[in-house]
C-alpha cells in the first residue's frame, strides 16, 4: 500500500503504539494507592453497577467482582500497565489487542450511562480492532523481531 511518509504497516504500528501509550497513561494517572490499598476504584464501580439498568451487569458484578475486590483492583491496574507495555513494545501484540478490546468493552458496558467515558472506550476499542485486523505487529515490534505470529 502506498502512503505518504510511512508504509501502511508502519502506520498501523503507529496506531498500535499510540494505543499502548493511551493504556499506559490510563495506568499512570490512576491513584494506585487508592485502588490497591483502599479499594476506591472497585467501590466506585460497585456503586455504578448497583444503579445499572441491566440486571446482567448487576448480577455479574455481584458474582465476579464484589466477592474479591482487592484481586479485581490488581487485575484492572496491572492489566492497563501490561496492555500499555505490550502494545508499545509489540510483545504478544494480538493477545494485548484482544485483551484491551475486551477490557474496553467491559468498561463500555459498565459505564453505559456516562457519555464522557463512552467516547474514549469506543475509540480505544475501534483502534484495537483496526490494529488487530491490520496485523500491526508486522513492523516495529518484538513479535516481528523474534518471529512470533
From TrEMBL:
The yes or no answer to whether the keyword Transmembrane is present is yes
Which keywords fit this entry according to its UniProt record? Membrane, Transmembrane, Transmembrane helix
Record has Transmembrane as a keyword: yes
Span-the-membrane segments of this chain are 81-110, 122-140
Descriptive protein name? DoxX family protein
State the organism of origin. Answer: Streptomyces pristinaespiralis (strain ATCC 25486 / DSM 40338 / CBS 914.69 / JCM 4507 / KCC S-0507 / NBRC 13074 / NRRL 2958 / 5647)
Q: What is the lineage of its organism?
A: Bacteria, Bacillati, Actinomycetota, Actinomycetes, Kitasatosporales
Amino acid at each position: 500500500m502506498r502512503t505518504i511518509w510511512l508504509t501502511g504497516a508502519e502506520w498501523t504500528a503507529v496506531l498500535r503504539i499510540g494505543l499502548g501509550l493511551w493504556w499506559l497513561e490510563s495506568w499512570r494517572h490512576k491513584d494506585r494507592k487508592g485502588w490497591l490499598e483502599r479499594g476506591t476504584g472497585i467501590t466506585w464501580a460497585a456503586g455504578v453497577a448497583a444503579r445499572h439498568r441491566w440486571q446482567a451487569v448487576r448480577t455479574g458484578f455481584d458474582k465476579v467482582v464484589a466477592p474479591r475486590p482487592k484481586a479485581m483492583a490488581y487485575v484492572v491496574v496491572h492489566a492497563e500497565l501490561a496492555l500499555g507495555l505490550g502494545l508499545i513494545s509489540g510483545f504478544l501484540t494480538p493477545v494485548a489487542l484482544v485483551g484491551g478490546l475486551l477490557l474496553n468493552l467491559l468498561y463500555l458496558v459498565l459505564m453505559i450511562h456516562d457519555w464522557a467515558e463512552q467516547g474514549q472506550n469506543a475509540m480505544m476499542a475501534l483502534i484495537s480492532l483496526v490494529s488487530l485486523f491490520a496485523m500491526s505487529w508486522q513492523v516495529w515490534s518484538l513479535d516481528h523481531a523474534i518471529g512470533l505470529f
